[in-house]
Batch of 3 targets.
Target 1
Amino acid sequence: MAVIADRCPEIQVTVVDINQARIDAWNDADLSKIPVYEPGLDEVVGRARGRNLTFSTGVDAAIAAADMVFISVNTPTKTKGLGAGQASDLRWVEACARTVAKAATGHTIVVEKSTLPVRTAAAIKTILEAAQEDDQQRSFTVLSNPEFLAEGTAIRDLEAPDRVLIGGEDADSIDALASVYGHWVPEAQILRTNLWSSELSKLTANAFLAQRITSINSVAALCEATGADVLSGTVIWTQADSSEAAEEAPDSVLTLTGWHHC
């Protein structure tokens, strides 16, 4: 959100949290005290805070004034009940949806940012549609906009992303979010798809990363057992791959996007 505020000075961005201590830290004059450490984040917050970036505990008021609401909350693994130890705990996502349903006015675009199981948007839509039935003056659309970031380079990844993925069912809402990113991201790098494909892309990216880590750990264990040098082997494999690719260059290329790590 801080990067959006920094790149879109005409858009008012309000970050809300029910934790007063955390909001106080975000508002602290000493930027070294902000509650999240990420290289470059303090500079981004410093440029936008007080201009068009606000941190507040006034959740209901901020939602009522918003045209677009981003849900960015933790989705830890369930510790009890059905799916304990495996399934994601969606209580905070659902709590946010209920809060939005209660406080929103007019038409509100709700954007899920957290890493979520496929079709979580359906649960969010069910909650919002129930509120819409009770008050015909309000309406909602739901979008999925996952982030593909790496710890330590998140700000750089946000400022110069290789792609931005937006999933949804309403073209106007997708265009509205795309226009925000369009302030600094080339149109060709803003990808549009449906809700379920967007949610699945994030999970697939995480799965591919886990597979890569598992594979290289297995290779390292094999090298330790046999006395091989994993670094030398990697260089040889890379050179071989490059040589084979040059010899077998195809006439056409199919590029699969959306499969990078976290």
Target 2
Amino acid sequence: METQDSMKEFNRLYRATIRRIDEVDVPAMKFLMVDGSCNGSNFDEFRLGIEGLFALSHAMKAAIARIHIGFEYTVMPLECLWWVRGTGEYTPDNRDEWRWILMVVQPNYVTSALAREALSTMDREKFLPGISKVRYGVFTEGLSVQTLHNGPRAEKWTTINRLRAFIEKKGYQVRGRHHEIYISDPRTLSPEKMKMIIRLPIRFPEHDERARQ
């Protein structure tokens, strides 16, 4: 029986510890995604997006099992990219401006055509408001740094600042969007007990010779 455990396949990308900060090079990966914004304290869209993503991810797993007999894999954890429109920095003080993309990584067998087929079937068979906003995409993050945050979600900013200090000390620059990987399921666990990987994409300064290699 063929199996794919993406957590093991991308071990360095989905394993982290609070004791250190790791540098990782994230390849192109296939995702189901949902785009949205916070609109102040209204997180209904976020919640519906999570429901839609996981419903379609499990539908994809069933579809692949029918096509590729004996192939099994684990549905991966929820991830989210966070940023602020324009040039603003993602901070706890500009919540009204937060934008996000919810994501769940998919196995290599998943294609845009298969995703459209599964989405169409889900729309007909099961009404979930979040389903219609799910899209398929390929996301390449590249060179990044990451570490584990273990504790209240509201205290993640301390971990983010630790990452930023590491980036500055190493002579890198932050680029791209703030990335969270929820090792704990945010649908079932108290916000006070969250375990998540926090990842920041980086680049070498333009004047650094390593950037041109």
Target 3
Amino acid sequence: MNPWLDPSSELFAMAELLDPWRVPYIHQVLTRRLHHTPGELSVLDVGCGGGSMSAHLARLGYRVTGVDPDEVALEAACARPSDRHAHPEFMAAPAERLPFPAATFDVVICSEVLEHVDDLDTSLDEIYRVLRFGGVLIFSTPNRTLWSRLLLIGVAQECRLTRVMRDVEHDYERLIRPDELAYTLETRGVDVYEVNGVHVPVRSLPGILRAYPRFKLGREPLSVLARAVNLQVGGSTRLACIGWGIKYG
């Protein structure tokens, strides 16, 4: 089975970890904060992976195009169930070479992508280029802090006793601090209006403590543990951030 669609895979679990908080945040920013109507917005999902977030946004009414350089991911994205009213389009392309004319999209989303690209500056230049004047850029990324080094890389990836990720890895040196990202975007002409933290709520701890040993013993897939974490937007940015800005430059 395609790993992006396999409930036992890490890639499937990542979508289960990320979508429950990032999709509502994106929808709230665009509709409640900026008073847009979903059906009127063209959205580009950069680094869409297996298309999970693209599919969620399309079901909310957005006109979504997803791009990713991974052909296996795009096969999964295209295979996702959809209906005629909620069908994203998918194309093979890296963030550094987006195959669209300038000012094509009303919204560009780069969620958990910028820390993986080969050339961050070129990727941001391309994202800026395809976003129309007055368009919205929404971003999320892990922070480069001691806290993320300990949890995201040390506990989740490197420590043999605690690691839960083998296929999905992060390089600490590629992680981006929110202030650095905001400055980089603003120098390109994107006014950053909001940067929020992403945190694990205390109320999730009992569920995590139940799901973790069952995952390590092979009794439950990682996706169950991912759902138990129940990440929330708000609080400190020491682990990760999500935010948005508008292209005015």
